[in-house]
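Fig. S4 source data, part A: sequence.
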Amino acid sequence: MEAESTLLLNRTDVQKLLSLTECIAAVEKVFRRQGEGKIPPSGILGVRTQSGGLHVKTACLSGAKNYIVAKLNTNFPQNYSRFGLPTIQGAIVLYDADNGRLLAVLDSMEITLKRTAAATAVAAKYLARKNSAVATICGCSEQGRAQIRALSLILRFGKVYAFDIDSNASLRFAAELSRELNIDVEPVRTVPSAIRTSDVVVTCTPAKEFFVHKKDVAPGTFIAAVGADDSHKNEIDPAVLASAKVVGDSLEQVCSIGDTHHAIVKGLMRKQDVHAELAEVVAGEKTRRTTEAEIIVFDSTGVAIEDAAAATIVYEKALTVGVGNHFEFAA
């Protein structure tokens, strides 16, 4: 039955099968392989509606087994207030790259959450100052939680500031993560003062107007710009990107839908001004941080190889331990 059927895995299954530590290691490995030219380019397609949109991201992975992976995610920012539904919903489909057989369909929420945070952690490993001790998290959603959990596996923070336009969300975030991570997490009502004293700044919001201003970013800061995954979103002052070392997860994507896109549109920088893709840095093809004073922005729009790396781990572990349900689409 397992040879012909498709494995179905829900969010609880994925959550049990994929730890943040595993995900960080897998994401770092897949970026290194891409930087070494061992993975073909990924593909992306999107469509918008009045309330949100759908992204389709695809990638191929080769190894002991060869896979084609596609993630289909919807993003509807007003979902919770209007319908009580999550902002992001979707599925990941996993195919055998040798014969095209549909191997698995997975809920995408847990993988999206963890692989996004894992990419930030990998970027911080190569681009943040090693002694970084203070962080600011802008956006106290589940993604914000995943971000600080992943970063805490890479850096030793003594202080974290938590900001959200919903002050109750930042209060809950601070109370929960302070206990869980044994870190002093302080909710703040304004961003500038927190950013000025931070070594690491993470933005994971649906903002359409930037709120991280150049005047507030201190020398040596590492910024992970996570929220802008569409051209109408913007979290970081274009002047920050124009004066910083910019590393993107995908050069094409950051220049078309990331925060870098806004700096280019304003004429403050060009595509060729982007220092590197993260894969090039991880593979040692481009330099990482070279001085303690340089400001580095990791423009994270989300790439399919991250999803593929995480999804294949989940699928192979599920087969090993016997998790999930099998379904015959052709029955």
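Fig. S4 source data, part B ends here. The mean pLDDT is 95.
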